[in-house]
Amino acid sequence: MLTHTTSAGRGRQDDRPGGPGCWAVALLGPFELTDGSSVVPVTSDKQRIVLAALALLAGQPVTVEELADRLWGDRPPPSARATVHSLVMRLRRLLGAGVLRSDNRGYLLDLAPARVDALLFHQLRTAADRAAARGDHHAEADLLGRALALWRGPALADVRSETMHRVDARLWQDRRDETVERRAAVSLAVGARPDIVDELRELVAAQPLREQARALLITALHRAGRRADALAEYREARRVLVEELGVEPGPRLRQAHQDVLCDKDVHARTGSPRRQVPAELPHDVRGFTGRRAALDRLDALRDCGDGLPIAVLTGPAGVGKTALAVRWSHRVRAGFPDGQLFMDLHGDSRRPMPAADALRLLLRSLGVGAAEVPEDEQGRARLYRSLLADRRVLVVLDNAADADHVRPLLPGTGSCAVLVTGRSRLSGLVARDGARAVVVEPLSGLESVRLLADMIGADRVSAAPKAAGALARLCGRLPLALRDAGARLVADPALPLGDLVAELSGRDTHTPQELCRAAG
What we know:
Blueprint: H1 7-12, E1 24-26, E2 32-34, H2 45-56, H3 64-72, H4 80-95, E3 100-103, E4 106-109, H5 117-133, H6 137-148, H7 162-190, H8 196-206, H9 211-223, H10 227-245, H11 251-261, H12 292-299, E5 310-314, H13 321-332, E6 340-344, H14 355-365, H15 377-388, E7 394-398, H16 403-406, E8 417-422, H17 427-433, E9 436-439, H18 445-456, H19 458-462, H20 465-474, H21 479-491, H22 497-505, H23 512-519
Parallel strand pairs: 5-8, 5-9, 6-7, 7-8
Antiparallel strand pairs: 1-2, 3-4
């Protein structure tokens, strides 16, 4: 239950006991709606989804189409608009007059940000940014701690929306993990708290490939006088990176290890921050198959001569563009010692990320405080290019909508490299910006069967080679569809390949993507 209130919130709403000003929504953990004194049940899954989507944008209008996207993804029923109106009407009856309003732009939940835990979390982080800007790191650590105390579990834990878990929950979880790391770094600067090691161990256990958390844990152990534990933590970090990704530790992790070896005073400075080295690549896909020619073409990106090296991976949905981009990026990341940036632009969704928002996130990844991020897109782009001007950074822009979507995010110097993925051909980047286009084709028949064998076992495939080939053809030899079909077979070891082929062949589906969903 939320208890934090602000004068701004009291000024906007009626705060009588039980009145509309007492409503609060908690999303950082299991969904919870409270009326100021008790929890109010919202048992309908669809009502929870609508209320959660409105609460995340409290005070801003949300369109019917956006709510439908949260409810049904890219497959809304013909009755979607009528169903959304009905769900909103029921929520109005629950919340009372004036709390859930409508206008010609959509629906608006009239709650102060302090009445929604996710938005309060954001407010506290912003306040921490201001404290850091004025050099008050004790206040910064306290505000970050208060922000983290709002979390009761995974964001949107029981809100049953695939879209919200894929987009919103992931975004808020990333913000929480970043806040844990930031509070640990500030705590090391002002004097570590006793629980800092336990907090970092919890984060590392959940995300063992997160190098920044590993580096902070090594530093915290060293500062606590546990030098042997710090060295053991580095060995474990290196083992995981080599076994999982086939790469050596990055510069942050190596520096923390070197500090321990040299028994260096690692008390963090509270003056000007050190240049931040981002390491944002997602984990590499296990069982990656084929793509030798595409990888070779990408390798040539580093030797393309003058200008900014840009490569564009295009192809249909499910063909494996992102997996290929991530695989190549991990292969070459040692050549970009100043960091690797990764940004999902959501260009294949109904709400592509605006370039201004992407620039804000990229600047934050490069160490720019929230208060120092320019307000306008052009100012953000200038600062972004300035920060990258003398650095060797790999920038991966995933799911771009078109060339105009990407162009503001391009560095201004050839010392960096850019890898873009998108379903459209992005020919504008090739024509105007000198990008090299790599069309990602479906796997060959042999590669498709090899991918299935890697997932379900070679014996199972060799026992039914014709069925395996037929399944590959049904899936259009698309890696995503093949992996979904393989997941179905892994979940049911007794299911013959031929039976799955017969089942999928009998469905009234028209594309490999539909078969992909049917198989799962």
